[in-house]
Automatic annotation (TrEMBL):
Gene3D superfamilies: Aspartate Aminotransferase, domain 1, Type I PLP-dependent aspartate aminotransferase-like (Major domain). The gene is bioF. This is 8-amino-7-oxononanoate synthase. InterPro entries: Aminotrans_II_pyridoxalP_BS, Aminotransferase_I/II_large, AON_synthase_class-II, AONS_Archaea/Proteobacteria, AONS_Proteobacteria, PyrdxlP-dep_Trfase, PyrdxlP-dep_Trfase_major, PyrdxlP-dep_Trfase_small. Keywords: Biotin biosynthesis, Pyridoxal phosphate, Transferase. It comes from Geobacter hydrogenophilus. Pathway: Cofactor biosynthesis; biotin biosynthesis.
Length: 391
């Protein structure tokens, strides 16, 4: 007889794996009120601080006044508004592609794009640390999914050689890995895709707006923008809005609009979100955006380098995502609880998000963090880390 839901919940609690939602009052600034307590926010993906930017808020309000609160339908019925076209054209220019298509979330994008591109007889080559939405999209596709060791291009080459007689072959990777903060070796992946005639898709949810000279992401940083067949990214992280996109050739985007089920069978994004996203892309692609990226880069270096010097294992982080290795689930959540008591909100990450024994604090930096606040957080982390034997 299967266990009851209550029994399974008790098992999660006993293993230190039970989660609960914490309530944030107000906007996602660098300081928030969480469960009634003011705290420095160190676990938001609002990397550039745009989620409460006045320009985005004003754009949203104007859009509601002009277009109302809903698109009213899915895109292929009557839910394509002029704002959808304007945003997609802007994203395509930003990413340097022929066209773009917006989705309702990053999860919806990956679970729609991958099954549209590949199916039975095809092969998906997926980095072992890719986001869950890539894994689920690959499973939904019914293609053979082959997971290669993290960032191991030699292993990927062997797998590509083994599957040379397959139909369509898709290499898919995160641009920035969301739990480790390191980057995919896109130059090497691009070389392999050329050599083996594969497609290359990059989920740059955590790189878009943040990395590269103009914020175009990890592919810009590594000089391979034109080598990526499908650029996927989100609008709800550095861009401070909501939703996701695919940017590719006109042919591929037309194909996705006709084949991606998560796009076809969903009421489309509302006007307020579209307008905020459009304003965000414009802001990122401006001197103000460059200044925010520079501030974020300084904050990241200050925080990550300081904690490394104190003895923390930051797990190869090279971006604004800075994990601090703890190990066990209960120890990680005890660390998190002590931080929150002292006014620092940093989230603990446990299985199934990360493998057992690799639990960590996942700290994320924002351009709007002040150095004084970060220094205080670092001092507290060092004190707790030493007391718990983490460092």
């Amino acid at each position: 007889m299967p266990k009851s839901f209550a029994e399974e919940l008790e098992m999660l609690k006993a293993q230190g794996l039970h989660r609960r939602m914490r309530r944030i009052a107000g906007s996602q600034g660098s300081r928030v009120v969480v469960d009634g307590k003011e705290a420095l926010l160190l676990c938001s993906n609002n990397y550039l601080g745009l989620a409460d930017n006045p320009r985005l808020a004003e754009a949203s309000m104007r859009a509601v006044e002009r277009y109302g609160t809903s698109s009213g339908a899915s895109r292929l019925v009557s839910g394509t508004m002029e704002l959808h076209h304007l945003l997609e054209e802007r994203i395509a220019r930003f990413k340097g592609t022929g066209a773009a298509l917006v989705f309702n979330s990053g999860y919806a994008a990956n679970s729609g794009i991958i099954p549209a591109l590949v199916g039975k007889g095809d092969v998906v080559f997926s980095d072992r640390l890719n986001h869950a939405s890539i894994v689920d999209g690959s499973l939904l596709s019914r293609a053979t999914m082959v997971r290669y060791p993290h960032n191991d291009t030699a292993a990927l080459r062997r797998l590509l050689e083994r599957h040379q007689t397959a139909g369509r072959r898709l290499i898919v990777t995160d641009g920035v890995f969301s739990m480790d903060g390191d980057m995919a070796p896109l130059r090497e992946l691009a070389a392999l895709k050329r050599e083996f005639g594969a497609l290359l898709m990059v989920d740059d949810a955590h790189g878009t707006g943040v990395l590269g000279a103009t914020g175009r992401g990890s592919a810009e940083l590594q000089g391979v923008m034109a080598e990526i067949d499908i650029h996927m990214g989100t609008l709800g992280k550095a861009l401070g809005s909501f939703g996701a996109y695919a940017a590719a050739s006109e042919e591929v985007i037309d194909y996705l609009a006709n084949k991606a089920r998560s796009f076809i069978f969903s009421t489309s994004l509302p006007p307020a979100v579209l307008a905020a996203s459009l304003a965000a892309v414009d802001l990122i692609d401006s001197p103000e955006g460059a200044a925010l990226r520079e501030r974020l880069s300084r904050n990241t270096a200050f925080f990550r380098d300081g904690l490394r010097a104190a003895g923390f294992d930051t797990m190869g982080s090279e971006t604004q995502i800075v994990p601090l290795f703890v190990g066990g689930a209960e120890e990680t959540m005890a660390f998190t609880a002590r931080l929150l008591e002292a006014g620092i909100f940093a989230q603990g990450i446990r299985p199934p998000t990360v493998p057992a024994g690799t639990c960590r604090l996942r700290c994320t930096l924002m351009a709007t963090h002040g150095e004084e606040d970060l220094a205080r957080a670092m001092a507290l982390m060092v004190k707790i880390g030493k007391g718990m034997g983490v460092i």
